[in-house]
Design goal:
CATH architecture of chain A: Orthogonal Bundle
Number of domains of chain B: 2
Helix content of chain B: 40-55%
Shape of chain A: globular
Distance between the termini of chain A: 21 Å
Shape of chain B: globular
CATH superfamily of the largest domain in chain B: P-loop containing nucleotide triphosphate hydrolases
Structural class of chain B: alpha/beta
Distance between the termini of chain B: 37 Å
CATH topology of the largest domain in chain B: Rossmann fold
CATH class of chain A: Mainly Alpha
Strand content of chain A: under 5%
Oligomer: heterodimer
Strand content of chain B: 15-25%
Largest sheet of chain B: 6 strands, mixed
Order of helices and strands of chain B: EEEHEEHEHHHHEHEHEEHH
Radius of gyration of chain B: 19 Å
Number of strands of chain A: 4
Number of strands of chain B: 10
Helix content of chain A: over 70%
Number of helices of chain B: 10
CATH class of the largest domain in chain B: Alpha Beta
């Protein structure tokens, strides 16, 4: 009951916000939604299936470039937005075959390297526009309706978040989801229960890449511009920080983490933009904050924000009932 | 049921298992015993596919399986209860057992993501069957608890329920009695006897000789990676080679 009320409340606020926010606040709201979409995938991959990726930004970029290239080539934006997660997932399947033979730190570094390689390729190649990137990407449109306003993109983004959360929720509480959670504990025992471990790792990698690709597709239409500089390695780290802070292995935790970190970074950015601050202040501050927040959460709230708060609430409720 | 022919495996030039041959007949309970380092675990892993053999063949139900991945052997009907606690963390007891039905069910990512009616029906059947298995091993009242909080004896019972859910043709038990106290051990032995009475073929790898001789129809003794005796428990216990290599150690 409490869950249902909380869910409805969150949905109502999510739907009401685009109407009341101004354009600069809406920009934050949209970027927050996009980050949440990617982070749900990271939480699925790391929290449930036990695989690490320090390269989710690469799939975000692949989604963005795919949608941008198709739109610039005259393909209807809807088709581009559908293609973005599909191409991201397909890339993950191809890259994942050699990569997912690695585990733990090795996998983390390999995915990080993948993103670096991809970024330098995008910066060199002709058809991706080199370092300048792709510009003048048309607005997103469905038939004759064109998403001209920021609030339209906000609705599109949060519809995407809802879709990604629903898919993740359904997968987790099912046969394939149990298989993923099983192989996170022991690949040996999972295989002995008849689970094709390699194939499942590949599919969950592709699924999390699809979420990132979808976010990337929306991003390119919203900003109208993509370049290698839009997808620094820092954003991949940011997704992991968001997932860990919110609580790995919880779907809502990913959204909570994305919200907390986005708001924190926004606050710091306005702090760093104060007169008298050096020009490198924003990047130094955000790196420092990621590090501090991550260490703090791991030390004091090892299961993340959401499980910690939920646990405290349910304990309080129990003690009230006991009285 | 299972035929192992001339199987060897070495680690860094040292044979852990050397030229081992054995057969397990339909409906038989076969025990493999041997002192520490005799190669029991290696042989177990070779049979289940978690290690690849250097030489030799393994056939299961008349089919060569020595090149098959572990999950393929599992789907042919090999189920394992591991010695080390291999219950899946972050899942309830029931969910753990439901994993055992993986090989017998089909619903994939797409039908799960879309919650197709077929998937819902599958899920209900899987949960019902898992509950039956939990009932059988005496864990029904724990079904909704987190699996990793169970005591070790119940974790092993949980693994047994998971293995049985796969409807195995051959059940492999790796040191099932280790770490169990008197009463837990007794309950486990009773369960194995019940399964044997039901006609299930069982391979029991065990350190505890008394446990094996009580349950097994036939005992294979390994020492230094080789089979030194193979026969009914009473006969094997009297074998001078076995006494020297294994039982003799204890005295």
């Amino acid at each position: 009951m409490i869950r249902l009320v909380a869910g409805l409340l969150v949905a109502a606020v999510t739907l009401a916000l685009p109407a009341v926010l101004d354009d600069s606040a809406l920009a934050v709201y949209i970027l927050l939604g996009l980050a949440a979409m990617v982070t749900v995938g990271v939480s699925l991959l790391m929290g449930y299936a036990g695989q690490v990726s320090l390269g989710q930004g690469a799939f975000y970029a692949i989604g963005a470039y795919t949608a941008a290239l198709l739109a610039l080539g005259g393909v209807p934006p809807v088709a581009g937005l559908v293609a973005a997660p599909v191409v991201a997932a397909a890339s993950a399947l191809v890259i994942g075959v050699p990569l997912l033979r690695l585990r733990g730190h090795h996998l983390a570094f390999a995915t990080l390297a993948m993103q670096l390689i991809l970024l330098s390729l995008a910066g060199q190649l002709e058809f991706t526009g080199g370092d300048i990137g792709l510009q003048a990407i048309p607005q997103f449109s469905v038939g004759s309706f064109e998403a001209g306003s920021a609030s339209a993109y906000a609705y599109l983004t949060w519809a995407g978040v809802a879709l990604v959360m629903l898919v993740t929720h359904n997968v987790i509480a099912s046969r394939p989801g149990r298989a993923l959670r099983a192989l996170a504990t022991s690949e040996t025992a999972a295989a002995s229960s008849g689970i094709p471990v390699g194939r499942y790792k590949l599919v969950v990698f592709a699924l999390s890449a699809a979420f990132a690709g979808l976010a990337g597709g929306i991003y390119c239409f919203y900003t109208g511009y993509v370049a290698p500089g839009s997808f620094p390695v820092l954003i991949s780290i940011q997704y992991i920080v968001m997932a860990v802070v919110g609580g790995l292995g919880t779907i809502w935790g990913a959204v909570v983490g994305a919200t907390a970190i986005t708001l924190l970074v926004q606050g710091l950015n306005s702090l760093a933009a104060l007169p008298g601050m050096p020009s490198y202040a924003p990047s130094v501050l955000s790196y420092a904050v990621y590090a501090l927040v991550l260490i703090g959460v791991v030390l004091f709230l090892p299961h993340g924000l959401l499980p910690a708060v939920a646990g405290r609430l349910s304990r309080k409720r129990e003690s009230l009932r006991a009285r | 049921m299972l035929t192992v022919t001339g199987v060897s495996r070495s680690f860094g030039g040292v044979y852990a298992v050397r030229d081992v041959s054995l057969t397990i007949a339909d409906g038989e309970v076969c025990g493999i015993i041997g002192p520490n380092g005799a190669g029991k675990s290696t042989l177990f892993n070779l049979i289940t596919g978690h290690l690849a053999a250097d030489h030799g063949q393994i056939s299961f139900l008349g089919q060569r399986v020595d090149r098959l991945a572990p999950h393929r052997r599992a789907r042919l009907g090999m189920s394992i209860v591991f010695q080390a606690a291999r219950v899946f963390r972050g899942m309830t007891v029931r969910e753990n057992v439901m994993v055992g039905l993986h090989g017998r069910t089909r619903a994939g990512f797409v039908s799960a993501a879309l919650r197709l009616p077929r998937h819902r029906r599958d899920e209900r059947e899987i949960a019902a069957e898992a509950d039956t298995a939990l009932e059988r091993v005496g864990l029904a009242e724990w079904a909704d608890r987190p699996a990793d909080r169970l005591p070790i004896g119940q974790q092993r019972a949980l693994q047994l329920a998971r293995a049985l859910c796969a409807r195995p043709r051959l059940l492999l038990l790796d040191e099932p009695a280790s770490g169990l106290r008197g009463q837990e051990r007794e309950r486990l032995a009773a369960l194995v006897e019940e399964l044997r009475a039901g006609g299930l073929t069982i391979l029991l790898i065990e350190h505890d000789v008394a446990f094996v001789t009580r349950l097994a129809d036939r005992v294979v003794v390994l020492d230094l990676g080789q089979v030194i005796a193979d026969g009914p428990p009473a006969e094997v216990r009297a074998d001078p080679l076995v006494l020297a290599a294994y039982l003799g150690q204890a005295t």
